[in-house]
Specification:
alpha+beta; Alpha-D-Glucose-1,6-Bisphosphate, Chain A, domain 4; 8-stranded antiparallel beta sheet; 3 helices; SRPBCC family protein
Length: 131
């Protein structure tokens, strides 16, 4: 299953966006308002839960400086990745594209497609909060 949300222009350089996103504690700023839990487990891993959803543990899997960050499920039970592609537009502006890739059976994919899409759209919208 592949999900992409519209790219988001951010008034920060590609380096500023990259530096913000590789510091995983900063993901708390991007989370939806209905977050029930957010906990940093180590420098590369965090756990979060949204209302009515199970806890999800994400780990920093890959980083290409100023261009790409890949977070993946810490568990192999539901393998998926969440990727942020960063494109420099100028010294003070960049564009962030979020994509989700997961391998799920048809029933599971049908159940999670809307919540995952909404979650990613919120993360993208909240990129305005980068400090």
């Amino acid at each position: 299953m592949h999900i992409e949300v519209a790219k988001k222009k951010v008034q920060k350089s590609d380096q500023e966006v990259f530096d913000f996103l590789i510091d995983i504690k900063n993901f708390k700023v991007l989370m939806p308002e209905n977050i029930d839990k957010f906990e940093v487990l180590d420098e590369n891993t965090f756990k979060f839960a949204l209302s009515g959803m199970p806890e999800i543990v994400l780990r920093l899997k890959e980083q290409i400086p100023h261009k790409k960050i890949v977070l993946g499920a810490a568990s192999d039970k539901l393998p998926f990745t969440l990727t942020a592609d960063i494109t420099s537009m100028s010294d003070t502006e960049s564009e962030v594209g979020l994509s989700f890739e997961g391998q799920f059976n048809a029933m599971m994919a049908m159940m999670i497609k809307n919540p995952i899409t909404n979650f990613m759209e919120t993360l993208s919208k909240n990129m305005d909060k980068l400090t």
